[in-house]
Amino acid sequence: MKIVADENMPYVEALFADLGEVVMVDGRTLTQAQVKDADVLLVRSVTKVNKSLLDGCDRLKFVGSATIGMDHLDLDYLKQRGIFCTNAPGCNAVAVGEYVFNAMLELARRFHSPLKGKTVGIVGAGNTGTALQKCLEAYGVKTLLNDPLLEQSGDDREFVSLDELVERCDVISLHVPLTRDGEHPTHYLFDKARLNALAEDTWLLNCCRGEVIDNRALIEVKQQRSDLKLVLDVWEGEPLPLPELVPLVEIATPHIAGYSLEGKARGTFMLYQALMAQLGKQVDKSLSSLLPPLWSHQLSPLSVPDEKALLCLVRLVYDLRDDDELFRQRFQNDKGFDLMRKNHKHRREFSALMLANTAGSDVDWLFELGFSGVGL
Ligand SMILES: NC(=O)C1=CN([C@@H]2O[C@H](COP(=O)(O)OP(=O)(O)OC[C@H]3O[C@@H](n4cnc5c(N)ncnc54)[C@H](O)[C@@H]3O)[C@@H](O)[C@H]2O)C=CC1
Ligand SMILES: O=C(O)C(=O)[C@H](O)COP(=O)(O)O
């Protein structure tokens, strides 16, 4: 069996080498010739899997994407060809939730405007939106949710319309798939009119897909409105963001919100499980045996952290300012965006940090936030 896999997918050798020949490729520039004799294709979001890539790949029986988003896969074509296709829903939800929470704490500190006390609107309340909601609620921040599809499906959380969310929220974070059809398309969901409708001093964060915001309109609006604060991890036209947009953004990163080591590993592992099921084989490897152990350091908070101390704790796990700084230096270099993603130093999730000696102090909410506790 020949398995062609994106080189940015960790643990492929460890999980798939028993099953056949593994060939690692650059997913962005993958060609038909490289996939021609593959039985299994493992991709990430940068590979468009469609007729022009797969025409003539007669042996291909399995396509797996180690991502949540599926907008790069031509599902109708794959179905028509009878090629089994799967993704990895939820694999990097915690990573995205923690990234966004982290970014909000950074904005709060930078603009002397505490996160506690604000109302945060979450547009799209699926895996990543819910992971963010969990962090915010652990910290005691009020959230409003907008998700017409979940609302219609009977999800028992409370939902508001997008107009109401925009009107009532101090902070808005986007967590929708990129869709162009159906009753609730998300392409340019934040167009010029909606951007203009944002309340004064709104913080707008986008970690889902660049095209959910009209980026040219965003430049025009932001040039008129210095009160708006932006965090963008995703960009229209990746890997070449509009160069005028980057300096207008407070925190700018190259589509790495989901890049925790745990998140990426879960993505590969879910594809391994799916392939084993397709082959009728027993899963004989475990995710925990692949991941490095939790950090051996244990931290003992002596008192309940205030927002500044919480940010220090969060920065200890992942200092978002490093990626922002590097991105500004490199995004215009040849392949700068993709190289930064390829060489991204995997961050751990909050759970990698153990908090000890907390008995008696009122810090249970830190465990709700995701940190591990000794003996928990
Ligand atoms: N920056 C990054 O590294 C990452 C980006 N993503 C992106 O984020 C998207 C969301 O990820 P998940 O939360 O895991 O997906 P999900 O499928 O679990 O949740 C998406 C939610 O959005 C809702 N939705 C769809 N259209 C909507 C609309 N018009 N208005 C409001 N809600 C709407 C859906 O009902 C669903 O509940 C992915 O599709 C992917 O494109 C995901 C992971 C990492
Ligand atoms: O899961 C998704 O959807 C994502 O956006 C991925 O985290 C993006 O990472 P790559 O697949 O582009 O490496």
Automatic annotation (TrEMBL):
Pathway: Cofactor biosynthesis; pyridoxine 5'-phosphate biosynthesis; pyridoxine 5'-phosphate from D-erythrose 4-phosphate: step 2/5. Residues 290-370 form the Erythronate-4-phosphate dehydrogenase dimerisation domain. It is found in: Cytoplasm. GO terms for cellular component: cytosol. Residues 111-257 form the D-isomer specific 2-hydroxyacid dehydrogenase NAD-binding domain. Keywords: Cytoplasm, NAD, Oxidoreductase, Pyridoxine biosynthesis. Its EC number is 1.1.1.290. It catalyses: 4-phospho-D-erythronate + NAD(+) = (R)-3-hydroxy-2-oxo-4-phosphooxybutanoate + NADH + H(+). One of its GO terms (molecular function) is NAD binding. InterPro entries: D-isomer_DH_CS (IPR029753), D-isomer_DH_NAD-bd (IPR006140), Erythronate-4-P_DHase (IPR020921), Erythronate-4-P_DHase_dimer (IPR024531), NAD(P)-bd_dom_sf (IPR036291), PdxB_dimer_sf (IPR038251). Substrate binds at S45, T67, Y259. HAMAP family: PdxB. Catalyzes the oxidation of erythronate-4-phosphate to 3-hydroxy-2-oxo-4-phosphonooxybutanoate. This is Erythronate-4-phosphate dehydrogenase. It comes from Shewanella insulae. The lineage of its organism: Bacteria, Pseudomonadati, Pseudomonadota, Gammaproteobacteria, Alteromonadales.
